[in-house]
Amino acid sequence: MATTISSELKLNVVLDSALVALREALLPINAFSTVYNSVPLQGTDKVSVPFFPLATDATVDFNGTYNFSDTNAINSREITVNKRKYQALSFTSSELARQPYFNPEQLGFLKGRKLAEDIIKDILSVVTTANYGAPILTSAASAFDSDDVITIKTALDQAKWAKSSRTMILDNAYEGALLKDAGIKNAAAVGTASAIQNGLLPSIAGFNVIGTNLIPGNSQNLVGMVALPEAILVAFSPVTPSSGVRASLTNYETVTDPESGLTIEYRSWGDPDTDTEKSVIEVNYGFALGHAAALKRIVSA
Predict the structure, then answer these.
(1) Is pLDDT larger for residue 117 or for residue 41?
(2) 274-285: per-residue pLDDT in tens?
(3) How many other C-beta atoms can be found within 10 angstroms of the C-beta atom of residue 230?
(4) 6, 104 in Cβ contact below 8 A?
């Protein structure tokens, strides 16, 4: 006897699985100044993102009065949420009736993962020579090791980067090279066996290291970067369909990650001519350049 699964339950599984995949794949974006707004935008397409300018004003000698001409006050910047990416799903009535062959969890995860992949590549498309200057390191993955991380750390110290918020984002081949580094694998040397046991890198030379296979090459051999949060400003927020559009939809749902506020949207409508239900899983976001001096590129050649 076939097991009957309600359409509501299948939808929940699809959305939850897509959200899990999105959250995991978008982890590198959290290294930047990012706001996940779970409140739908209404009447505006702007989201305020925290912005912490680099301190560049010269220290002033006291001459009888304080001068408050600070141009680097902590503030925020408005980011326009003007990007809409989606993954399409469609099912005929006949396909939906074959419930034993329908795996909503796997479908949602794959759609969410692909959606996250394209979002990351879009946001990181700004990481170019034109925007952030010459690379801080050029190295093949086979030659990359903890000594290179220390070299980068020294260069950033000399550039007076804040030490507390540095993040290193690396292509998985470079992350793997660090995992093979004898000094990192040696639990006694680093105080944790996470590298050899779980494939997780400890903090190295003051960097939180994030590995991913979603860094775009940008036609400039980009394989990684070191960054402060103000390098790129990112905002996510759902956009509620207008009343007229919503009237033509058979369903509009959102699901939100309780920790980050990351929200994905689901829209569906029917096409009776083809006996097909058409659906999309969608994410609305925007991004902008922050400080050019707050990101350094790592390239392979």
Answers:
(1) 117
(2) 888 888 999 999
(3) 22
(4) no
Domain range for residue 218? 132-232+292-299
Q: Is 121 helix (H, G, I), strand (E, B) or coil?
A: helix
**Within-domain flag for 120:** no
DSSP 144: -
C-beta of residue 221 within 8 angstroms of C-beta of residue 67: no
Residue 68 CB-density burial (10 A; 0-12 exposed, 13-18 middle, 19+ buried): exposed
Q: What is the pLDDT of residues 176-212, one digit of tens each?
A: 999 888 777 665 455 555 554 555 576 788 888 899 9
Percent of residues, the chain, with pLDDT higher than 70: 82
Please state whether the predicted TM-score (pTM) of the whole model is above 0.90.
no
C-alpha atoms less than 13 angstroms from C-alpha of 275 in its C-beta half-sphere: 6
Q: What is the DSSP string of 160-219?
A: T--STT-EEEEEHHHHHHHHH-HHHH-HHHHS--HHHHHS----BTTBEEEEES----TT
**For the domain that residue 178 is a member of, what is the CATH number?**
3.30.2320
Q: Rounded CA gap, 2 and 291, in Å?
A: 58
Q: Are the C-beta atoms of residues 109 and 145 closer than 8 Å to each other?
A: no
Q: Is residue 282 part of a domain?
A: no
Do the domain assignments include residue 250?
no
Q: How many Cα neighbours within 13 Å face the side chain of 172?
A: 5
Which of 145-154, 191-200, 205-214, 240-249 shows the highest mean pLDDT? 145-154
Number of H helices, E strands in the chain: 10, 13
